[in-house]
Recover the amino acids of this structure.
C-alpha cells in the first residue's frame, strides 16, 4: 500500500506524463528505495500499437521494414493526438 506522500508523487507523475504524451493507458508503479517510479504505455504508444497491428494485418504492407512501420504508426498517433487537442470536447 502506498503512503500518502508516495500516492501524491504517483498522481503528480501521472499528470505530468499525461500532459507530455497524450495520457497514460497502463500505469505501473515501481517503488525503488524511497522513490516511486511511474512507467507504462502512453496513449500515444497505445495508438501506435493499434496502427502497427492494423498495418501488419494488411497484405500489402508485409514488405515494410520495422523502422518504416514504427515511423508510420507514431506519425498517425501524433496526428490523432494533435487533432484531439485542437477539437473541442
Amino acid at each position: 500500500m502506498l503512503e500518502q506522500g508516495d500516492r501524491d508523487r504517483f498522481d503528480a507523475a501521472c499528470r505530468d506524463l499525461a500532459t507530455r504524451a497524450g495520457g497514460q493507458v497502463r500505469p505501473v508503479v515501481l517503488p525503488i528505495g524511497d522513490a516511486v517510479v511511474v512507467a507504462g504505455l502512453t496513449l500515444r504508444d497505445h495508438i501506435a500499437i493499434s496502427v502497427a497491428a492494423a498495418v501488419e494485418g494488411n497484405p500489402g504492407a508485409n514488405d515494410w521494414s520495422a523502422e518504416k512501420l514504427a515511423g508510420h504508426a507514431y506519425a498517425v498517433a501524433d496526428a490523432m493526438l494533435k487533432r484531439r487537442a485542437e477539437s473541442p470536447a
Remarks:
- The two ends are 35 Å apart (CA to CA).
- Strands lie at 24-32, 35-42.
- The longest strand covers residues 24-32.
